[in-house]
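Fold it.
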Amino acid sequence: MTSALITADPQESFLLLIDIQERLLTAMPDGVQESLIKQAGILLQASNALEIPVAITEQYPKGLGPTETGLLNLSPSSPPIEKTCFSCAGVDELMTRLRNSHRRSVILMGMETHICVLQTALALQGQGYQVFVVEDGVCSRTEQNKNNALQRLRQAGVIITNTESVLFEWLADAKHPEFRTLSKLIV
């Protein structure tokens, strides 16, 4: 099976938001913060409507602050999981939640692309998960670091996608009962 033929299946998907924290957001380039929050919000809303499990991580929240408030409000049933390791695959609570979901595809969004997102994607792929990294839903302090990470992930066979593709792959058909509501999120 080649990665070019794989799409995000709503029955197999698990959405993971990595470290979208208030203080860390302020270190991102101008305009990037708003875009990241918007894209993550779209897939959080879709996950809620389509009953796709979600997990949110926070890297050392004492230093980097809590998850962005608007995102927390969109996912009240998924309290953030604190971590200090860069790869989310090293967090027992998260991995237990993922295993218990019986989902095999993990959709990744968050910060920073070249550190926590990269290490998480490679580790999950190494454990047999199909990993999707949402290109317009990840960022780094520099575009060069983000691009380098995305290139490495592509070379490793991780699927690089975007918010709109994931949303419409989850819907699959304009006849889907949530199509009218969720397609309005893309503006």
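The CA atoms of residues 43 and 167 lie 7 Å apart.
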